[in-house]
């Protein structure tokens, strides 16, 4: 960074690990160019390493930063080229829809920010720099977490690369990873059925039993479970984290939870395109 824009010292209490490797912001800007048109919302702009690269995309940019010192510095540096907002990224409510989220996420805010984004319906994609292992798990590499499985029918998760710890200052104890989340154009489960689907996922992840077959005995008789396992090419010994998005959706359609009691209920998917249930899954 030039003498005109000295790097402000990091504030440990804000969980700031700033990017010093210029190749990383450049790569993230390249990834953003591949997304559909739309404005950018950057969460946790920090010292502006990402902000500067994002401006090269030519899109409208709003940068959110909680540290007032950095807000003043960002406004001096970028002027009218970016709107810099002094706000908490967890409570800020954007005025736009169809925007793209970009963030070098403060590691201690990873889970609350992910929950906020997944609950929102106003953004198209999110490119997030997270801890390496978190990024891998959210993308389902080596096994997905319950949080990913809960939202898979409505979002796609992709791992877009690893970032060495030495790319940050202060240097964290772990490497980073770039996670891309995209809202599915066609949900795999109707939004109206989200509560029922997520109830099923939670019951499987927290259920007792040896392997998937043992856990699923709470949902249906063994013959039905065995038929589903064979149809999906599963042995029954897998753990829930080994299931893919397609497995979860198939499981939901096969053993749907009833909204009234939360108890599992066996049903066959209705194939009649004119029926209300079939229409809800379009």
TrEMBL record:
PROSITE patterns: RRNA_A_DIMETH (PS01131), SAM_RNA_A_N6_MT (PS51689). Residues 24-185 form the Ribosomal RNA adenine methylase transferase N-terminal domain. Coiled coil: none annotated. Its EC number is 2.1.1.184. SUPFAM superfamilies: S-adenosyl-L-methionine-dependent methyltransferases. The lineage of its organism: Bacteria, Bacillati, Actinomycetota, Actinomycetes, Pseudonocardiales. InterPro entries: KsgA/Erm, rRNA_Ade_Mease_Trfase_CS, rRNA_Ade_methylase_Trfase_N, SAM-dependent_MTases_sf. Residues 259-282 are annotated as: Disordered. It is an enzyme of class 2 (transferase). Keywords: Methyltransferase, RNA-binding, S-adenosyl-L-methionine, Transferase. The keyword Transferase applies. It comes from Actinoalloteichus hymeniacidonis. Residues 265-282 have a biased composition (Basic residues). S-adenosyl-L-methionine binds at residues 17, 19, 44, 65, 88, 104. One of its GO terms (molecular function) is rRNA (adenine-N6,N6-)-dimethyltransferase activity. This is Dimethyladenosine transferase (rRNA methylation). GO terms for cellular component: cytosol. SMART domains: rADc. Belongs to the class I-like SAM-binding methyltransferase superfamily. rRNA adenine N(6)-methyltransferase family.
